[in-house]
């Protein structure tokens, strides 16, 4: 009886004869067909290995060789070190590789912010030119889809306990509004600049200087209201209004053309909400606001000059009397004018409250909040507080990592032109001469966010990103 080994060998022989018959049309050839195929495979593997070995030897002896980057027109970045280069022709037409200090310089020289990675070996032997570019220009610029818009929020926060600081910290947050706080709307907030000690009234998106404090605090009954401590940078960013001061007539206590009146007296026609107030002048009367009336009557010297021996208060005036003398009417009001009616004070909890102003555009007044907070400010970049030109800066700037902004800084909401700036996540603004240069930097078609120049100036300034400057040797 055949063993299992004999049966297996018989099966192999049958399969071999079947394959030979199909491939060679011969059941018992001198050589099996698969033996030739195996030899071919082995030979192919050996040839491939030999080819790779030869290529490796060539790579060691003569590395590099990639030249496609020379026609790419892009900023060259060395793979191993990250060094930047601009490949440009010199005066005689020779193409040279110019080192540049940063990506912005390379973009200005090459006309594009796109880059091509090239090995050091491929750059070896390429003629070098002088180092070109703009020192301190940005080496990292935000992608167009990472640009931030409005609002920008400027906050003045009290010093942290135990920090040793005695003045508030002013923080500018790009692209974010307050996450909590109490909007003041049409209420008023008294703020004091801790650096020069000046008092200001914040109302309706403006700050109004208060040089004569007693007249305002007494006349508007603000004496008990908290005066929030703020930094100069916060005040300088706010739209400035005219000073809130009493405006007494010349010649107080002298006779007037109005019968029975003396210069400096306050007269009133009507009562209640419809009351109209006037100040007596030498030649007649002049129309004043209710706030101006309060400020004038708060002057303690009136008891010895105008209201001698009588109550310091408005004296009723009939319409006939008002029409009997020359009358100067109020000039047309502007946003810069102080309030005409006494604004109610905002609900400020203490002088160490945080006050924030959110700016949504150059044409819109900022929205002010007290007891406010902006989330995510732990990534703030310190500025030093003072720019190279002496400008007062925000103490720190918050820009999302990898983010930035293209800004049009306008002097007023009605301006149609302004300065262009690129803001990076380092919290620095770089002047850009025009939209063509902006396009070279990779922002073609980007609509800049328009903001007041008084706010944008709180950012530290970098060098101007100008093509002409980029061509200068370092």
List the main descriptive attributes of the protein structure presented here.
single chain, alpha+beta, TTHA1013/TTHA0281-like, 5-stranded mixed beta sheet, 24 strands, elongated
Describe the structure in your own words.
This is Type VII secretion protein EccB. Pfam families: T7SS_ESX1_EccB. It comes from Klenkia taihuensis. The protein is 23% helix and 22% strand. With 474 residues, the protein is of the alpha+beta class. The chain folds into four domains: 4-61, no CATH class; 68-123, TTHA1013/TTHA0281-like, CATH 3.30.2390; 152-240 and 346-457, no CATH class; 254-328, Type VII secretion system EccB, repeat 3 domain (OB fold (Dihydrolipoamide Acetyltransferase, E2P), Beta Barrel). A seven-stranded mixed sheet has the order 7-18-17-5-6-20-19. A five-stranded mixed sheet has the order 15-12-13-14-16. Strands 3-2-1-4 form a four-stranded mixed sheet. A hairpin with a 7-residue loop joins strand 17 and strand 18 (367-373). The radius of gyration is 40 Å and the shape is elongated.
């Amino acid at each position: 009886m055949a063993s299992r080994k004999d049966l297996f060998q018989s099966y192999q022989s049958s399969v071999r004869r079947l394959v030979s018959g199909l491939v060679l049309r011969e059941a018992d050839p001198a050589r099996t067909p698969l033996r030739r195929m195996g030899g071919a495979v082995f030979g192919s593997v050996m040839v491939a290995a030999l080819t790779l070995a030869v290529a490796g030897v060539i790579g060691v002896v003569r590395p590099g060789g990639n030249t496609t980057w020379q026609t790419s027109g892009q900023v060259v970045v060395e793979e191993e070190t990250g060094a930047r280069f601009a490949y440009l022709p010199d005066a005689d037409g020779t193409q040279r590789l110019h080192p540049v200090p940063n990506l912005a310089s390379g973009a200005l020289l090459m006309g594009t912010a796109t880059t091509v990675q090239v090995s050091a070996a491929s750059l070896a032997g390429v003629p070098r030119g002088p180092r070109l570019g703009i020192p301190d220009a940005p080496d990292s610029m935000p992608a167009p889809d990472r640009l931030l818009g409005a609002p920008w929020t400027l906050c003045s926060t009290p010093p942290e306990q135990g920090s040793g600081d005695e003045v508030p910290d002013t923080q500018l947050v790009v692209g974010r509004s307050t996450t909590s706080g109490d909007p003041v709307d049409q209420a008023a907030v008294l703020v004091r600049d801790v650096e020069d000690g000046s008092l200001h009234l914040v109302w309706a998106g403006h700050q109004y200087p208060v040089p004569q404090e007693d007249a305002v605090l007494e006349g508007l009954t603000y004496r008990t209201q908290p005066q929030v401590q703020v930094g100069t940078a916060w005040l300088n960013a706010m739209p400035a209004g005219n000073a809130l001061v009493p405006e007494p007539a010349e010649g107080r206590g002298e006779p007037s053309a109005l019968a029975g009146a003396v210069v400096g007296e306050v007269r009133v026609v009507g009562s209640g909400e419809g009351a109209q107030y006037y100040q007596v002048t030498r030649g007649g009367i002049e129309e004043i606001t209710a706030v101006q009336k309060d400020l004038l009557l708060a002057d303690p010297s009136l008891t010895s000059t105008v209201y001698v021996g009588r109550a310091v208060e408005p004296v009723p005036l009939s319409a006939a009397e008002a029409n009997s003398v020359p009358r100067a009417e109020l000039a047309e009001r502007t946003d810069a004018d102080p309030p005409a009616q006494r604004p109610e004070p905002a609900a400020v909890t203490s002088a160490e409250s945080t006050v924030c102003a959110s700016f949504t555009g150059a044409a819109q007044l900022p929205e002010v909040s007290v007891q406010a907070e902006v989330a995510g400010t732990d990534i703030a970049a310190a500025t030093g507080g003072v720019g190279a030109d002496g400008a007062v800066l925000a103490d720190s700037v918050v820009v999302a990592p990898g983010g930035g902004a293209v800004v049009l800084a306008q002097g007023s909401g009605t301006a149609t032109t302004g300065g262009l700036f690129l803001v990076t996540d380092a919290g620095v603004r770089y002047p850009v001469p025009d939209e063509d240069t902006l396009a070279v930097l990779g922002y073609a078609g980007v609509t800049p966010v328009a903001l007041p120049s008084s706010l944008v100036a709180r950012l530290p300034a970098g060098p101007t990103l100008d093509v002409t400057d980029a061509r200068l040797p370092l």
